[in-house]
User: Which sequence fits this backbone?
């Protein structure tokens, strides 16, 4: 048996409990698509995975561009933190579901529920001897919610970019659905240069969509 890494049985139980909770994201449908009548919609886990992939591709590329163009003031980001934030940014939805403005729940109540869910996961890990893991997850999630760091701002925009790409793909598959409003809302919410450029590319591809069918 390898001695490179070590877990106690108590820690293993705590991690498995956490992973079972996080795994519920695979069974939480993205509510916006359900509301618009898209059949067989993606899960929150599907969405989070592609946001993480977007974080890897975008953060690594923008950091390289920053290093290459030293005469320009370009904000660099911590790639590992971007990935971590992307992975956990919707983690609370494993417990509270995908709450949208159409659910009649105030922003304050939504925040209370989601914070409580993350706190419970953090405390569960801590109770099993995995306190550092719980704190790391909690801090990454809180960083995303606050949206104040370069990493959080980028991932927030990539969350919108991923949504716009998914809207494009659903409209390619279901030509009777007009999902252009998702592109529009993404463009309004995006703040970073990288996010805007990515959305411009998605918009360019939307122009190649066939006319809506009846």
Assistant:
């Amino acid at each position: 048996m390898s001695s490179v890494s070590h877990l106690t049985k108590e820690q293993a139980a705590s991690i498995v409990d956490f992973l079972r909770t996080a795994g519920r994201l695979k069974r939480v449908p993205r509510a916006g698509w359900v509301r618009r009548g898209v059949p067989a919609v993606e899960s929150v886990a599907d969405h989070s995975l592609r946001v993480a992939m977007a974080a890897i591709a975008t953060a690594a590329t923008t950091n390289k561009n920053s290093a290459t163009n030293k005469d320009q003031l370009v904000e660099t980001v911590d790639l590992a933190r971007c990935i971590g934030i992307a992975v956990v940014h919707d983690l609370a939805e494993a417990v509270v579901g995908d709450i949208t403005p159409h659910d009649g729940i105030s922003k304050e109540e939504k925040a209370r529920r989601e914070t409580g869910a993350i706190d419970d996961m953090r405390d569960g890990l801590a109770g099993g001897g995995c306190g550092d893991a719980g704190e790391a997850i909690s801090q990454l999630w809180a960083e995303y919610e606050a949206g104040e760091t370069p990493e959080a701002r980028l991932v927030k925009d990539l969350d919108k970019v991923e949504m716009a790409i998914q809207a494009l793909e659903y409209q390619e598959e279901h030509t009777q659905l007009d999902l252009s409003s998702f592109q529009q809302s993404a463009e309004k919410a995006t703040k970073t240069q990288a996010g805007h450029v990515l959305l411009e590319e998605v918009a360019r591809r939307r122009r190649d969509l066939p006319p809506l069918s009846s």
Notes: Residues 8 and 140 are 25 Å apart (CA to CA). The longest helix spans residues 44-68. The two ends are 62 Å apart (CA to CA). The chain has a mean pLDDT of 95.
